[in-house]
Amino acid sequence: MRRIVRKRQLSENVFQFVVEAPHVAKAHRPGQFVVIQLEDEFSERIPLSVADWDPEAGTITLIVQVVGKTTRMLSLRQEGEGIAHVLGPLGNPTDIEKVGTVVCVGGGIGTAPLHPIARAFRRKGNRVISIIGARTKDLIILEDEMRSVSDELIVCTDDGSYGRKALVTEPLKELCEQGDVNEVVAIGPPIMMKFCAETTRSFGIKTVVSLNTIMVDGTGMCGGCRVKVGDEIKFVCVDGPEFDGHLVDFDGMMRRLAAYRPMEQEKDHRCKLELVGNERRGE
Ligand SMILES: Cc1cc2nc3c(=O)[nH]c(=O)nc-3n(C[C@H](O)[C@H](O)[C@H](O)COP(=O)(O)OP(=O)(O)OC[C@H]3O[C@@H](n4cnc5c(N)ncnc54)[C@H](O)[C@@H]3O)c2cc1C
Ligand code: FES
C-alpha cells in the first residue's frame, strides 16, 4: 500500500496527491507515467502522469481529473489512506536536447505532465515559451509552476474569463509565424494535440505529443493502447507515450477512446470484473 501524504483540490474536478513511491521517485524522468491500482487485483488499473517527484522524500505528485469510476474513487481518498499499487516508471522519457526555442503547450490536465518537461528543457539551456489553456478560468492549473519554468507564459481561456480569449493554437500560430520556434511539445485532449500538430505542420516544426489512449496492462501485452503512427501500429505504453504529432492518426485514436463510452454511460451498467471479485469474496 502506497500512502497518500498530501492531498489538495486544484479545481472542482482536479485533485493533487503526493504519494509515497520511493522506487518511482528515484528512477523517474520527465515524460514517463505510472499505472495505479486503487484496491486489490480486481480493481481497474489506470495510467497517470507523474507531475513531479522528490527522490529524497521518496514521493511522487499525481494530478488527477475526475472523469469516471476510478478517478472518482481516487478523488475520495484522504491523506493517510493508500493506493494498493503504483507501477512505474513506465514509457520512454522525453528527449530533452538543446534546440533553441521550445514552445510547450498544455491543455487542461495536460499541463500536469508538461510542467516537468518544460522545466527540463529550460534546465538544458533552451528558451521556453509556454502556452496553457482551458475552457474557463477555474480549469487553469499550475499557472505559477509553469511561469517559474518558462521565459514567457501565455494563458488562454475559451470563454475569455482569464488571460487571452483564444484557443491555444492561436498564440502558437503567431509564434510560428514570428519564425524562431525550433520545437513544440503539446499535451492535452486529443483534439487539442491534433490541431497543434496541424498548426505547426506547414511551418515544418518538430511537434511532440503525449498520447492518452486507454491502457490496461501498461506493458505492451494487451494491445489496448494501440495507435497508428505513420504506416505503423504502435503501443503507447511501451513505444510512447510521446510521438511525432505530424504522424499520429488522431481521428482513429479518438474513435478508440470513445468506443467504451456507451457502456460507461449505461445507467445500470455493472462491471463484470467487479461481480467476479465480489463473488470470490462471498459478497
Ligand atoms: C500515459 C497517460 C497518462 C495520463 N495521465 C493522466 C494524468 O496525469 N491525470 C489524469 O487525470 N488523467 C491522466 N490520464 C487519463 C486517465 O488515465 C483516464 O482519465 C482514466 O483512465 C479514466 O479512468 P476512469 O475509470 O475514472 O474513467 P472511465 O470510466 O474509464 O472513463 C470515463 C470517461 O473518460 C474517457 N477516458 C478513459 N480513459 C481515458 C484516457 N486515457 N484519456 C482520455 N479520456 C479517457 C472515457 O472515454 C470516458 O468517456 C492519462 C492517460 C495516459 C494514457
Ligand atoms: S496498455 Fe496494454 S499494450 Fe499498452
UniProtKB/TrEMBL annotation:
Keywords: 2Fe-2S, FAD, Flavoprotein, Iron, Iron-sulfur, Metal-binding
Biological processes annotated in GO: pyrimidine nucleotide biosynthetic process
SUPFAM superfamilies recorded: Ferredoxin reductase-like, C-terminal NADP-linked domain, Riboflavin synthase domain-like
Top-level taxonomic group: Bacteria
GO MF annotation: an example: flavin adenine dinucleotide binding
Cofactor note: Binds 1 FAD per subunit. Binds 1 [2Fe-2S] cluster per subunit.
Residues the record lists as binding [2Fe-2S] cluster: C222, C225, C237
Cofactors named for this entry: FAD; [2Fe-2S] cluster
PROSITE patterns: FAD_FR (PS51384)
Domain FAD-binding FR-type: 1-96
Binding residues annotated for FAD, in chain numbering: I63, V64, Q65
Record InterPro entries: Cyt_c3_hydrogenase_gsu (IPR012165), Dihydroorotate_DH_Fe-S-bd (IPR019480), FAD-bd_FR_type (IPR017927), FNR_nucleotide-bd (IPR039261), PyrK_electron_transfer (IPR050353), Riboflavin_synthase-like_b-brl (IPR017938)
NCBIfam families: PRK06222.1 (NF004862)
The protein's name: FAD-binding FR-type domain-containing protein
Provenance organism: Winmispira thermophila (strain ATCC 49972 / DSM 6192 / RI 19.B1)
Species lineage: Bacteria, Pseudomonadati, Spirochaetota, Spirochaetia, Winmispirales
